[in-house]
Specification:
The protein is of the alpha/beta class. Helices cover 42% and strands 26% of the residues. The two termini are 25 Å apart.
Length: 280
């Protein structure tokens, strides 16, 4: 059985890896004024942060139209028997539900939507693992079981400079955002039950990152083979320095650097930084 792997743009998988592993991408949209841009295809992360400064305000975001999924699945049905469609958490976007609906509208191919319950490059880890297994000829059921194992052993924490972005986008309730702003704290956020929630409030970014590293160490000490990603919102140098620090302290884990692209960057804001991990 030939299995295709589909994901959305918020996995932020580099183009060379998407090409190498034949990963198909359905982009989310970012809207500045009257202009809509397909994330990663028409709007890079660096261009996005420049546009935010130029416009002086944040854009809005939207999920892919169901028709884009239908068109892609129909196209894939000519070459593949099945598709595994891996998407950002259904608690913050309707993208996963769009894949489910489209899968029920297409004949000639088995569609297996998978809710990552997270986003960014942790989601990307799932996608890359699925793509490697698909290239090895693994059956969809075996791939899904592996993804469920990874999801059960994943975590991610984010430190943001400004909670107002999340509050305006409806990803965080207004009271939490207001309290955070008044106290001038650096909140640590996490995914819980598919949505973004405050984990702890810390006074400085340095202390917040130290706390996130402690949370990573908790899992590292279990002896699990971990792969981790430092994710940044237009703060690459800070991310690279953190990566170097982590590699020295945790030599048995694998670390890479990724970024918050336009869609997630709209909600977390410039300067945000995160650490996510899952089992290898």
């Amino acid at each position: 059985m030939r299995t295709a792997i589909v994901t959305d743009s918020t996995a932020y998988i580099p183009e060379d890896l998407r090409n190498r592993f034949d990963i198909h991408i359905v982009p989310l949209n970012v809207v500045f004024g009257e202009e809509a841009y397909r994330e990663e295809l028409e709007l890079t992360a660096s261009d996005f942060y420049e546009m935010v400064r130029r416009y002086g305000q944040l854009p809005t975001t939207s999920q892919p139209p169901i028709g884009h999924f239908v068109e892609l699945f129909e196209q894939l049905s000519k070459e593949y028997d099945a598709v595994i469609s891996i998407h950002l958490s259904s608690g913050i976007s309707g993208t996963y539900q769009g894949a489910v609906a489209a899968g029920n509208m297409v004949d000639g191919i088995e569609v297996h939507p998978f809710d990552s319950e997270i986003t960014c490059m942790v989601q990307g880890f799932y996608v890359l693992e699925a793509a490697k297994m698909a290239q090895e000829g693994k059956e969809p059921g075996e791939i899904i079981a592996r993804l469920e194992e990874m999801r059960a052993n994943s975590d991610a924490y984010f430190v943001v400079d400004d909670l107002q972005n999340l509050q305006r986008g409806g990803r965080l309730n207004g009271a939490s955002a207001l309290i955070g702003s008044l106290l001038q704290v650096k909140p640590i956020l996490q995914f819980e039950d598919k949505v973004i929630v405050p984990f702890e409030k810390v006074r400085t970014k340095k202390k917040a990152l130290k706390r996130v590293i402690e949370l990573f160490e908790r899992d590292y000490q279990k002896g699990l083979p971990l792969q981790a990603v430092i994710i940044h919102g237009n703060a690459e140098q800070e991310a690279l320095e953190l990566k170097s620090e982590l590699e020295k302290s945790y030599p048995n884990a694998e670390f890479i650097v990724s970024y918050f692209g336009a869609v997630i960057g709209t909600h977390l804001g410039e300067g945000a930084i995160g650490l996510g991990w899952t089992i290898r």
